[in-house]
Write a structure and sequence with these properties.
Blueprint: E1 9-12, E2 19-20, H1 29-36, E3 37-38, E4 43-44, E5 51-54, E6 56-57, H2 61-82
Parallel strand pairs: 1-5, 2-6
Antiparallel strand pairs: 3-4
Length: about 80
């Protein structure tokens, strides 16, 4: 992710890569790493306040996965019925 003062960057973290919990106030290790370092050379990020992270809530991941599976199943059955 670029480290510049232009527009803010949104980092959407996959729920399998990291999750956050309100009970644990610390950010996930991956979020901390991206926040502190930039690029493949992992140089220190100068514009840390220019990155916004979207991280899945640990308590909601199971609901997310089951909801996604239900939507996929209903979409697949609709496609089969249409054929």
């Amino acid at each position: 992710m670029d480290d510049d003062a232009d527009q803010a960057k949104l980092a959407i973290m996959h729920y399998e890569a990291c999750q956050a919990s309100a009970a644990n106030g610390a950010p996930p290790d991956l979020v901390r790493k991206i926040y502190e370092y930039s690029g493949t050379l992992e140089s220190f990020r100068k514009y840390q306040n220019n990155v916004i992270f979207l991280v899945a809530d640990t308590d909601q991941v199971a609901s997310l996965v089951s909801g996604r599976a239900a939507i996929w199943r209903s979409g697949a059955s609709s496609a089969i019925q249409s054929a």
